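Interim report, section 4.2 (structural modelling).
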Amino acid sequence: MNQFNVWRTVFIVGAALGFGLCVILLTSQEPGVAVHAFFVGPFSNTYFFGNLLASAIPLVLTGVAACVSFSASVFNLGLEGQVYLGSFLGVFLAWRFETFPPIVLYPFVFSIVFCCSGLLAALSGYLKIKRNVNTLISSLLISYIAIYLVDALIETVFIDPNAGMAATPYFSDRFLFAKLLPPSDLHAGLFLALIFTFSLYLVMKKSVFGFEIALTGKNPTFARYTGISVSKILMLSMFLSGGFAGMAGMIDIFGIHGRMIRGFSNGYGWNGIAVALIARNQPLWAIPSALFFAYLENAANVGALLSDITPEIARTIQATIFFTVTAETLFSFVRKKKGGEAWTPSSTASSR
Amino acid sequence: MMTPILFAALGGLFTHLSGLLNIGLEGMMLLSAFFSIYAADLTHNLLIGFLAGIGISVLLALLMGVLSLNLRANIFVVGLGVNLFANGFTVMLASLFFDSKGTIFFQNLPRLAYLEIPFIHQIPYLGSVLSGYRLLDYLAIGAVFLCAFILYKTPYGYHLRAVGKDSKAAQNAGISVYRHRMRALVLSGVFSGLGGCALSLPLQTFVGGMTNGRGWIALVAVILGRGNPIGVFYASLIFGSASALANWLQASVSMSPKLLMALPFLITLLFLVVKKNKLEEGVGR
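Predicted structure of the assembly:
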């Protein structure tokens, strides 16, 4: 990130927090308590802080997932469905192979989930290549189909009648990740998320494949003339993107829930897009960016617990980030040269 | 069941033809659904409810326009923001005003009357199909023809489609791309607003997230309708009956309605795959 982008990011974060402050002041009966709970609360004890970190884990991974596809200038809008399918598959396999020791089960389940969610996303890439179907639209459609199908399975075949909500029974708790900061939700999946993010960073920045993705993203025509198979890059970047999204859901399930709950993913996919946009498609920057998103979510929850604000204000604050993050000319007064380095997905992804 | 989808789809049609894909339809509908019923409840006047719903939805459309056209933000991302915002904002206001996050029932609201068309409703069979709907439903069907007229018989419609087909050529021909896209967004706000009203006012209730994917289905209906009001009407009719069928199945058979809800998306996907697409040069080899 160059200095200009850093200032831009600072502005976006500041604007979001400022908006949050306004909303709290306008809606709360006891603004002092509410503001304190919102801004300081999440850091005040290990329970809140652990939960903050725990809720950042899936966001880091969906953020990274979005980074991969955006870098290749493909708009993977189906992250939500890929998260959902991955989680369900993880739960299903954990039941099916109940007798496996965890150490055998993890790599086995992880690779299957990665492949299946990846293939779900790669299907959009395939349709683009073979039938020229807009990736953005097809990934969205496929994602909705996947969500409804998984919902149908949860509600009928796999429902736990004693759960009192649409959820599957728990799988064996031997498979749950170790908790790091009890009583909070923070679990060992944190390390997995960091490892995945860092290895993707290496792939994107240090390998030939990563260079090919970046080149294809910047200028597909030029990439083709240099002998890169644009179709292959398109498919692979979608596959990786879907795979990471599937991981995000699965790690969340294995770390916290221990079963599949309808609608548990609660916008991980959508927020992952915003995380990637704030991080300007840099995998490592997805970590602070996801932490910020998780902070907003948890601050609102803590505020609701200790004061009288509603947790939903997190969504309105996150929405302001969506509004400002891609606005190119919002900061043109800072930048002397206009249109110097155009941000790719907005300019090229729309044509794909 | 069809009316809210049809209204929103007509809104999406204008932005689609102007070359923008407005994925904020869902959010606009949701916000309008809340504000229309809230205003109607406050004033005991349905007309004011309608105006409030349309107004807030247009306001959101203007915000989208300023962000994406003036500040050159990515319209998909802004649309996602609109949906997220509407989702959080309505629940926030509901818990602020009514202290409830669940279903809010407005008892004092005037009812929307059902209309019987004279003579036609007496025709056996056909009468019960064609007559006995709410004014809004007839309005929606009237709007289809109005849109068809505007898009295909007026200079504005020609210009709008020109902007969508090739914005550079349109710009060179002296048509303001900016102005037409902004107008298209405002129109999509008006229609999504009507769609939101058609959702909450007849039911006299508001539930958080009550649009339940109808905005997305409307978007899908636009694609399936091939950018043509009559096509959009048929697509909305199919999707409306599918969701009515889903409700009926939920009540009568123990089959999961979720399978049927996936159907609009599946149909559209298949349509896009089967339809003749020009392959981009080089890709696919």
